[in-house]
Amino acid sequence: MKRLSVLLCTSLLIASCGTSQNNQKQDKDDLSVTYAATITSEELKEALYTYASDEFEGRKTGEPGQKKAVNFLKDHYESLGIESPIAKGDYFQDIPESFFSKKAKASENVVAYIKGTEKPDEIIVVSAHLDHIGVNGNGNINNGADDDGSGTVAILEIAEAFKKAADNGHGPKRSILFLHVTGEEIGLFGSRYYTDVDPIFPLENTVADLNIDMIGRVDKKHENNRNYVYLIGSDKLSTELHNISEDVNKKYVNIDFDYKYNDDKDPNRFYYRSDHYNFAKNNIPVIFYFNGTHDDYHRPSDTPDKIEYDLLETRARLVFHTAWELANRKERIKLD
């Protein structure tokens, strides 16, 4: 009887340990779902109707409307209690006029971050460009709701989700840098300044860049299948990043990944045309999230009423889930 009792207790203990491990895994999965759910179409819409309003005058680099835009972003991060990696209350990485090759006045990137709990020196960057093309020759404002107001407000919601997790004791193991870059429309200047002149965090410590540039609309190719997003660059430097991206999507979101523009022979050369490229050229793995172009691209008609906010919510949650996985996995992803 004693031997039977010992065997029974041992069996129960093993079963209990297995259940505990499964519960821990389930808890981690549930946390990602829980905080992704705080990214909502309603909040994205509210922010974008301000950010892509006439008040911001098309956010042309170095102009008054762009200054209003960066202050909007700063105020948002301060209201959430998300810190700057530069100094308390200083969210602007100043870029002098001389850097813009006579294309713009002095401008600034906006930076905020959440410090990692276990590996704070390893950085996940989530980026989008804050600028647009301003006012056209007829005095019409190019609001840039999709380009790239959609990516900008997505980052704000992603940042808020990570902050809520941190406030509840579930902060990311690695640090997250929320990077809003200026001067993209005139030549990727803001991201180039960050990577080539003044990286706030060492590039060798930067694990990956998830770059969001236009995720609020549907292009003509997908009019009958709106549940998609173009992915560019995910397999260029790290097969592991590509596989993580695929697995995260299948597990949490399950939208169609279109790799059309990831082809090295793609004549549009989108891989070289957004801010992720300045990270990629420094051997930092990247993913570029993109909905493709449309008839309102770089026109005054790119307005917030044309954004499909349920899609914007889904795509923003996808980026959040991917960033969550990269920030919390045991080992940092490896270059091929």
From TrEMBL:
Which GO biological process annotations does it have? proteolysis
CDD domains, per database record = M28_like_PA
Keyword Hydrolase assigned to the entry: answer is no
Which molecular-function annotations from GO does this UniProt entry contain? metalloexopeptidase activity
Pfam families per the UniProt record, alphabetical: Peptidase_M28
Q: Which UniProt keywords apply?
A: Signal
Which residue ranges does the record assign to the Peptidase M28 domain?
Answer: 109-321
Give start-end ranges for the coiled-coil region(s): none
Q: Which InterPro entries match?
A: EF_Hand_1_Ca_BS, M28_fam, Peptidase_M28
Signal sequence extent: 1-22
The cross-references to PANTHER family, in alphabetical order and at most eight, read: METALLOPEPTIDASE M28 FAMILY MEMBER, PEPTIDASE M28 DOMAIN-CONTAINING PROTEIN
Q: What is this protein called?
A: M28 family peptidase
Give the species.
Answer: Aestuariibaculum suncheonense
